[in-house]
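Suppose a colleague, Dr. K., hands you the sequence of a protein chain of 220 amino acids and asks what its three-dimensional shape might be. Before reaching for any lab equipment, you can write down a predicted structure in token form. Begin with the sequence itself:
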Amino acid sequence: MTIYYQDESVTLYHGDCLEVLDWLEADVLVTDPPYGVGWSISTNRRAKSKAHDGIQNDADTTVRDAVLSLWGAVSPAVIFGSLRAAFPADLKQTLIWHKPVDAGVVGSTTGYRTDVELIFLTGEHIRRNSSRSSVLATHGGMSTYRSGHPHAKPVALLQTLMEWLPDGVIADPFAGSGSTLVAAACLGRKAIGVELEERYCEIAARRLSQGVLDFGEEPA
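The predicted structure, expressed as tokens, is then:
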């Protein structure tokens, strides 16, 4: 177990989240796990995409489901996912992230962009009046939230989701390039993250140490 980065608000571990279990001490889970779709991409100059050999543990949903089993069905959780993989157990509600206009072009052959992802809510969430749409849109293009990870999420989107979560420490056992941790810090919340790949730990640590308040486009 290695603490890769730490400040008064955020602790980031470099390691396997099924072995580094400090994140289980948190109160709320907000995470973007491997979806279980075997994603990879080749270079496409026309679409300005670079080759990527994929995400570790993305062959199926085993690791995601193991993490959710550890977390349990009571404490609230927000989990990003795909339409092409099995949904997690004990769903409370499913939201849709409508990505910006330049997203979902690579790999699309039908004329329709693959420009939506799912956001699963599990656990006990605060009861509220139905004043928000379950479709959360991001505008401004992917350049507003690209951070060196192929599946990075907008900080503003994560903040919107966090604003309706209970108080307490936020856990992200699949921290990636640190967007969840940055969003938590921007909101003055404490967070614990774990990331398996050191290259993404380095990006997350740099963003956090530079005090990057990357709000990006406000979701609609």
